What we know:
- This protein has helices spanning 12-18, 44-51; strands at 5-11, 19-20, 23-24, 29-30, 33-39, 58-64, 72-74, 80-84, 87-88, 92-98.
- By secondary structure, the chain is mainly beta.
- The protein has one domain: Alpha-Beta Barrel (ADP-ribosylation fold).
- The strands form 3 sheets. A 4-stranded antiparallel sheet has the order 4-5-8-7, with no helix packed on it. The protein has a 3-stranded antiparallel sheet with strand order 1-6-10.
- Strand 7 and strand 8 form a beta hairpin.
- The mean pLDDT is 87.
Amino acid sequence: xxxDLIFHIVSKRKxxxxxxxxxxxxxxxxxxxxxxxCISSVNLKDYLNxxxxxxxxxxxxxxxxxxxxxxxxxxxxxxxxxxxxxINIDAILDKIRIDCDKEGKFDLEVTFED
Length: 114
């Protein structure tokens, strides 16, 4: 199941604002298409520290790719994917609150046990 999991980071406020009608969407668009950027567990800590340094009140959405209704679009990087037109809520397995440490960094590792 670990290969079926991807993650999306969002502020608690944006989660409330963009969680409507059974879908979570963002305002990110590329080539006129709405896309939600997600990352695999492999580079999650690096991704957080590059894109969310010193941020608090974030949610880590745990997403099961096999439950997604909308198509997954691959990026040039093997660890980033986009979900076209939003994430159906029933594909989100969990929402975990995360905060940076005192230095503004994240020390988060995702491991899977058999």
